[in-house]
Amino acid sequence: MFFSSGIRSGLNIPGNTSNQLGSVVTNVNVNNLPGLNTMGISLARIDYAPYGLNPPHTHPRATEVLVVLEGTLYVGFVLSNPGPNMKNKLFTKILKPGDVFVFPKGMIHFQLNVGKTKAVAMSGLSSQDAGVITVANAVFGSDPPINPYVLTKAFQVEKKVVDYLQSQFWWDNN
Hints:
Blueprint: E1 2-4, E2 7-8, E3 23-28, E4 42-48, E5 53-58, E6 64-70, E7 73-78, E8 90-95, E9 100-103, E10 108-113, E11 119-125, E12 133-134, H1 135-140, H2 148-155, H3 159-167
Antiparallel strand pairs: 1-2, 3-4, 4-11, 5-10, 5-12, 6-9, 6-11, 7-8, 7-10
Helix pairs in contact: 2-3
């Protein structure tokens, strides 16, 4: 609910996590809070069901700082294309309430609730419109679909695997 260009209410209300991922992101950015225009910031509330996942995704225009409010999250990001003779290093941590983790701009990252109870986190992003690209949705759920030859070669899997993945409904928790 919006009262003016500088106020947004409702982040105290848990989001509905009864979906395939078991998570939901409630974004606050310039698109739903015009008062953020030119401020270079936005935020989100992320709710997780037990074992819920905020799937691998990236924010092309922002660094993200995540603070856990409830529950226990396994979080991480992958350093991609680091250079010759280097691997795509995975950085992970288990976070409990009050813990903070930073996801650098453009890095593929994720959060998984590893607890038997719900989890809640808040994130701050260094852009008024950080954008989000969910990896599985973009790669296997594009419309029209990416040519299976491209994906079989890129992922080194058989065409039947690509066909199966492209036939799935890719849930968007944003």
